[in-house]
Every structure is written in C-alpha cells, then in structure tokens.
Design a protein that fits this description.
This protein has helices spanning about 5, 125-130, 140-150, 165-170, 175-195, 210-225, 230-240, 245-255, 260-275, 280-285, 295-305, 310-330, and strands at about 15-20, 25-30, 30-40, 45-55, 55-60, 65-80, 85-90, 95-100, 105-110, 115-120, 155-160, 205-210. It has about 325 residues and is of the alpha+beta class.
C-alpha cells in the first residue's frame, strides 16, 4: 500500500482516482485547489507530482511512520512558518529535505501556484526494498535522514548538480516511466549520500511574522490599485517599514522586487483584458496607470514577449482555429 493511501491526509484531501500505475488526490480549500499524482516506485518509496493553484492551505498530513522526504520546486514559491515564528521560502530550483515531523500547519503559496515533485521514503519499508536492488548500492536511509534533518528546520539548498535528475522526471515517456523513475531515485540517493552538508547550509534568509505580514499588506495594496504608482518612500512610511528591510523582505516573500512584481502584475492583468474584452489598447493602458500607449506596449512586450496588438491577434487566431475544428466535427 502506498504511503499516501495509509497516511492521514486530512479532510481537505480526497481520492479522485486510482489505477495500477498511480493514484490521484485533490486538495480543496477556499482559496483554490491542488492536484497530487502519486506513483509507488518501490515498496515504501513514492514519487508525487504536485500542482497547486492556491493561496494557502492547512496540512493535516500524518504519515504514521518514520519518513524522509525530498521536495523539488519547479515553479512557484512555498512558504514555511517555523515553530519559532520565522518564515522560510522554497523557490524554483530549490531542493528541500525534511522528515515531515512538523507538517501539520498552514502553508502559503505567495505566487498562488506551486509545481514540483516530492519523493518520500517510509524508512523501514524502503530500506528493505533497496537492500540488494543493485550490486554495490548501500545507501543508509536512516543515516541520510539524520544527515539532513538533524535540526527542526527544513534543509534547503539550490539543486545545482541534481537539476538534470529532476528536469528529466518531469518529461518521461509513458512506456519507460516506471523503470525511469526507479533509476532516477537511485541516482538521487547516491548523490545525496556523497554530498557534504555545507556549514552555512541553513543560513538562508528568514523573516519574522511582523515583517511577512507587512510584505503581504504591501502586495494587497499595490495590486488593489494597479493604476497607481507608489514610491518606496511612500510604502515605507505607510507601513512603518525601513526601506532596506522592506525591499529585502518583499523579495524574500515574492521572489522579486516591488517594482518588478508590480510590473509583471500589471502586464498579466493587461493580458487577461486583451483576451477577454474588446477594450482598446489605449483604454487598457490608462486603466493600468500608463498615459502613453507606446510605453505600455514596450512594458508589455518586456514581460509577455510580444506587443499587446500581437498578443490580441494571436488570441483571436487561436480562437478561430478552435471554432473551425468545432465546425468540422460531425
């Protein structure tokens, strides 16, 4: 039986479907939902694909046994609130290792999405599965867990040398998927066994609750009035947040500077308006605080990769193609 079938996942997680290859779960919360697709690689070893589009959710996960987990973030950000009231962030490219001892808590997704992989090991059962799986393979899972999870904080590092392992896991051809997963899990364990834990591995920036709450309030203010431009001085004075600390904390929470975040937010809002309305480009520019259509067009292209008119035309072409296909169906 898979770890996720035997564990207590909580009332906000439901089983959607299951076949001989995988099991699919859905997490539903008032702020969005997440899909989790689990594969049992070996008895006691599971690989889980995570796809979340949500602001936050409560985790009630109780594994019921000693486990060791490896999380890889492909896209998005994940916020961890630690027991001492500080916050850490997992961002795209990060590798996180922990024992899930303190997993029953609120998790937040500052960018409203998170995509990644979790590889979990039920230590006792997985150790039996791996015994003799490959000549010369002698990874001690319990020792590995102690190596990276000795403290009460998650161990987080940039993936670096293991980028290729995870990038290949996201695009596996179905005919070779099961054997490919097995090979990659063994490769990852061998890498972690030989990896020396850097002395400064846990010196990732962290922030206190009061700082994070101010960063969230700033985000809500500036996205609630996308047509208005706030200076750093105005925001600093309004939220009683020293500019240097404010800039550092906002980037730590959301992964970009206040100006870069707001620019991306405006341009993505414009993209939605271009797709869903017939408003003129000039009108959309004005609603987003641009009094010059050419400046708006340049900003849009720098974020989206094409001009507003090109983007709208591309959307119309896709829509027309869909209509043609629908009309051609019997």
């Amino acid at each position: 039986m898979s770890l996720y079938e035997s564990a207590d996942l909580g009332e906000n997680v439901t089983l959607l479907c299951k076949d001989s290859n995988c099991t699919v779960y859905k997490l539903q919360d008032s702020t969005g939902e997440g899909m989790m697709t689990a594969y049992e690689i070996y008895p006691g070893i599971n690989l889980l694909f995570n796809d979340f589009h949500i602001d936050c959710c409560m985790s009630y996960f109780r594994p019921g046994t000693e486990i060791f987990c490896i999380d890889h973030c492909r896209e998005g950000r994940l916020e961890w609130e630690l027991e001492d009231g500080s916050f850490l962030y997992t961002e795209a490219g990060d590798l996180q290792l922990n024992s899930r001892d303190h997993h029953q808590r609120m998790f937040r997704f500052p960018l409203r999405h998170y995509h990644g992989i979790t590889i979990s090991f039920c230590i006792e059962e997985a150790a039996e599965s791996l015994a003799g799986v490959l000549e010369g393979f002698d990874v001690d899972l319990r020792a590995l867990s102690k190596k990276f999870c000795a403290g009460r904080r998650p161990f987080i590092m940039r993936a670096g040398a293991v980028d290729h392992i995870f990038s290949e896991l996201y695009c596996v051809a179905e005919p070779v998927r099961n054997i490919f997963f097995k090979i990659k899990v063994l490769e990852l364990l061998l890498f972690l066994r030989t990896l020396e834990v850097p002395e400064n591995s846990n010196e990732r920036p962290y922030f206190y609750k009061s700082q994070v709450e101010k960063a969230r309030a700033i985000m809500e203010l500036i996205t609630g009035e996308p047509q208005r431009y706030y200076t750093l001085e105005e925001l600093s004075e309004r939220f009683l947040f020293p500019i240097t600390s404010m800039k550092r904390c906002f980037k730590g929470v959301y992964g970009s500077s206040i100006y870069a975040y707001m620019k991306a937010y405006r341009m993505n809002t414009a993209a939605v308006m271009l797709r869903r309305t017939e408003e003129s480009i000039t009108s959309i520019a004005l609603k987003l605080g641009y009094d010059n259509a050419s400046k708006f067009s340049a900003a849009f292209k720098s974020v989206i990769g094409m001009t507003p008119s090109e983007y709208r035309r591309t959307g119309e072409e896709i829509s027309n193609e869909k209509n043609v296909r629908m009309e051609s169906c019997p």
